[in-house]
Amino acid sequence: MFGAISYREIRMKRVMMMMIVWMLMVIIGTGVGADHKRNAYATMMYMGTARDYEFYVAIRVMLRSLTNLRVNADLLVIASRDVPLHWIHALEHEDGAKVVVVENLKNPYNNHDRFKLSLNKVYAWSLVEYERVVMLDADNLFLQNTDELFQCGDFCAVFINPCIFHTGLFVLKPSSKVFNNMLHDLEIGRDNPDGADQGFIGGYFDHLLDQPMFHPPPNASTLLNGTFRLPLGYQMDASYYYLRLRWSVPCGPNSVITFPGAPWLKPWYWWSWPVLPLGIQWHHQRLQTLGYRSEMPLVLIQTMLYLGIIIVLTTRLGGRPKLCHWGAADHRINVAIIQTSCLKAIAIFSILVSYTLPCLLIPHTIHPILGWALYLLGSFALSCVAISVFVLPMVAVLTPWLGIIGALLVMAYPWYDDGVVRALSIFGYAFCFSPLLWISMGKIGSSLRISLEREALFLPTRLTDSTQPDHASNKFF
């Protein structure tokens, strides 16, 4: 009996062990399947432009903002092989993205500008493991979850231009057939008006303007077929905001802001705000997601440098340097007086350097408030150097500095009725301030001229004193 009971217990234990193993396999299998979702938000990254790092930061902020919105899709980056490995590592392990490394597609249109490799966007059609892909540019600012876009058809895009859709955001159904057709079109050099992705994809789907508007089906599991136009709310051009200083896009949810303007006015640059009011909104998202840890060491170093310059100039001993230089050699005096026009040019150039050099040294992707504060500190410190070296009036040299502060306050004023009033206020301020700037330049020139005349007045006396024989030293001869 004892042996029989033991045998049954052993069998029961074996059965339980097998059930546990089976359950673990099911759980592991479910986890692996859950790791790969049906749809994906994708963007691309390639190297070879002067702003590679800025776009890398923009992509990371966009990916993290999508994560914060709890999108039910994979985050995908189509990266060229020359993207640095530590960038790929950060995208995968810190931002939760999947990186697909590809070879750059050859651009047959001899386009040598920053869009030369933008045709890598064609790789989105090769992602056949997904049902739908939302392809994105890095300059998209998401305001809310847009997972309903995955219900759209084979191709869907927004017309921010009345006749041309924008490729900064579009929905596609991956297809090997479409991908191969596009590669063939690239090989034969099909007509492309701009030599980039905008013209190429726009030419491939040239019938989209005649298609119906996309409206998400009530059933979230329903997938539409065919091509559709997306409502403008999925690609709200930032320039529309600047006219009324608020969003009032009636068609579709106000979900995504895009910044298709000049590259140097993208929202991630510190000077984008308050020049463009929406810049601070992008930096607000970065502050909540990625932060500014990578830029802060350089900001602290520059801050200490500028503060050191100011402290040295305010506490240094001795008089100011002379504008003239003289010396003696072999009892002959060589006097070199700097010409007034040359001195003016050097002084004005030093002032220009004082106001431009800090702008070049500040990390481009720092927060605007930190960026402008560091710029004002740096320009003040370097202006003090010019004041000390050329014996210039402080108020005249710092007049542009005060004018910049005033312009920032005028642009950052948050209670304008609309963009027209804001623009008129900025132009009015510039018109009123320009005479003060002109007067300050005149005072700087007058100060330099007076200093030269003073040096020239006392120069003969100094030369006479320097040429008098020293009788005390010659009494032994």
UniProtKB/TrEMBL annotation:
Keywords: Glycosyltransferase, Manganese, Membrane, Transferase, Transmembrane, Transmembrane helix. The keyword Manganese applies. It comes from the Eukaryota. Gene3D superfamilies: Spore Coat Polysaccharide Biosynthesis Protein SpsA, Chain A (3.90.550.10). InterPro entries: GNT1/Glycosyltrans_8, Nucleotide-diphossugar_trans. GO terms for molecular function: glycosyltransferase activity. This is Glucuronosyltransferase PGSIP8. The lineage of its organism: Eukaryota, Viridiplantae, Streptophyta, Embryophyta, Tracheophyta.
